Amino acid sequence: MEMSPSHKKNLVRLLAILLTFTVINGTMFNVTIPDIAESFNLMPSQVSWVMTGYILVYAIGSVMYGKLADVIPLKRLLTIGIVLFSFGSILGFLSPNYTTLLIARILQALGGAAIPALGFIIPSRYFTHDRGKVFGIISSRLPLHLE
């Protein structure tokens, strides 16, 4: 099934924006680590799992989504990733305790991992003529204009 040019542009923009959010989310908690430790009365070794847990699950999940893309439709995988990432973000925002915060971060990572994996599979499958340009846009995480 061939996508229209407007659908292709929207898809590239969506992937670039989502990739930006997942990368920022992976690193922005560095700033909040002292506040999280203070809020939940945690030792540094405990609070470091907020970052470590995300990075581990994100890395493993990226490989898993790449393999799942061989048997599950990309649209379904991308939707699952966005839903998990969003739910984890909301849960993290509302976390009343450290355990809930860790679970939220893991859900964020499970969803966020779909973006880099699928972000590089989608251009190779659907953008035969503009593949290099799309890879460049997604890699730079800038929602630029496709012509």
Task: Describe it.
The chain is mostly helical. It has helices at 5-39, 44-47, 49-68, 74-93, 98-112, 114-126, 131-140. α1 runs antiparallel to α6 and α4 (74-93) packs antiparallel against α5 (98-112). The protein is elongated. Mean pLDDT is 86; it is low at 142-147.
Overall pLDDT score: 86
SS-derived structural category: mainly alpha
What composes the largest sheet?
A: none
Q: What is the helix tally?
A: 7
Uncertain residue segments = 142-147
Rg for CA atoms:
17 Å
Query: How many E-type strands?
Result: 0
Order of helices and strands: HHHHHHH
Q: Ends: how far apart?
A: 20 Å
Helix content: over 70%
- Shape field: elongated
Strand content: under 5%
Condensed summary:
With 147 residues, this protein is mainly alpha-helical.
What are the main properties of this structure?
mainly alpha, elongated
Secondary structure elements and pairings:
Layout: H1 5-39, H2 44-47, H3 49-68, H4 74-93, H5 98-112, H6 114-126, H7 131-140
